[in-house]
Amino acid sequence: MCALYTVAVLSLLSAAAAAPVPCEELVKPLVLDNVDKILGKWILIAGTADDPNNVDVLRNIDSAWLQFSLASHNDTAIFTQGVRLGKECIYSSAKTTIKNNKFTINDTIVSTGVLLRADPDYLLMSYSNTFGQITFQFLYLLGKKADLSVSELELYKRQVKCLSLHPPVLMDKEKELCPKKREPSQIKELKGEKEGQESY
C-alpha cells in the first residue's frame, strides 16, 4: 500500500513538473533593470507578424542584424540595423527611448516594443508599428549567434501561438550578413589615410 502511495505521489510530481507554462507567463514583458543586457550586435534568427503581407516581406530577407548602442542620455539608445536583400544591403538607424521596460522609436512611423521571455543568449522582441490608425504586430527572435537551440525554438513557437501570430519564418544561418556600416567620420578618416599614403 505504501509503495502504491509513493508511486502515485511521484506520478503527480512528474505531471506537475511537465505542466506547460501558461501563455500569460510566456508573453509577460521582462523587467529591463540594466540596459547593458541588450547592448551590442544581435542576429535575426526568426520572425513573424500578424499580417500575412509582413510575413511575406520576412521571407524575402536573406539575413539581418540589429545593434543597440548607448546614446548621450541614460534612457536613450541608438538602434541600427542592416538587412540583406539579395546582393543589396539596406541600413537604417534611429534613436530609441527606453522607459518602463518599453522601447519607443518615434520616426516616420511610431514603433513600440518590449522584451519577452527567452534564454540568456537570445532577445525576443515583441513590438508594433503604427501607421495612422493601423497597427501591425511583430515578434522577432535574435541571438548573439545565428544558431538556434531546440529548447529556444520550441519556446518561441509557443509564444508565437500565444500571441495568435502566423507561423514564424526561420532565417537561413548560412546566408551572409551585411557588413557593419562605417560612420561618416570613419570614412573621412580612412580617406585621409589613403591620401597620405599616396603622397609618399
From TrEMBL:
Signal peptide location in the record?
1-18
Q: Which domain of life is it from?
A: Eukaryota
Under SUPFAM superfamilies, the record lists: Lipocalins
Q: Where is this region: Disordered?
A: 180-200
| A GO cellular component annotation in the UniProt record | extracellular region
Major site of localization recorded for this protein: secreted
Compartments annotated for it: namely: Secreted
Q: In this protein, which residues make up the domain named Lipocalin/cytosolic fatty-acid binding? A: 40-166
Q: What is this protein called?
A: Lipocalin/cytosolic fatty-acid binding domain-containing protein
| Species annotation | Megalops atlanticus (Tarpon)
